[in-house]
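Collaborator request, handled under Task 6.
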Amino acid sequence: MAITRYNQHPDIFLTMTANRNWPEITSALLPHQKPIDRLDLIACVFELKRKCFMKEIEANRVFGNKVAHVFIIEFKKRGLPHIYALLFLKGLDKIWTCAQVDKLVCAEFLDPNDELMFFETIKCCMVHGPCGARNPQAPYMENGKCTERYPRTFVETITMDQDGYLIYRCRNNGQLHIVIGK
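Structure tokens returned to the collaborator:
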């Protein structure tokens, strides 16, 4: 909390979760082993990727001039490490407007013809659901409503709600993507 005395509120809240299907993990498994059998391996690979990711942010100034960061690592229910990081930017790189956020955050499916790897990652790992009428027993359902406020409506531009939370741009481009297992 003391860091906010000097740098105000963080500009970026970033999360990263280990993926048990990372090739560095699956290629190191012995015959008949599953990733869940090697939580030590998952933690090691995650730490290497975390260090590389933070170094990339620092060295290449991915988000601009970073003045400070803090993070915590937790282990989720299935044993996967997960990082919560707060990044503090300085000067002209501080984020003050929705337009600045729009340059950093995308809540839309990318074009599979241009960015197939990112498209598949989003489809596999970042799609919420099903909830609501399709799955009223989902763990994030409460009193017949999704606690994560899904399904969300399409919006043409990024805006901020009355509580100061961002509503990310997610345009209706007419495309429908089938997500297996969702």
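The cover message to the collaborator said: "The chain is about 25% helix and 20% strand. Strands lie at 12-17, 66-75, 81-89, 141-142, 145-146, 159-160, 166-167. Please let us know whether this matches your experimental observations."
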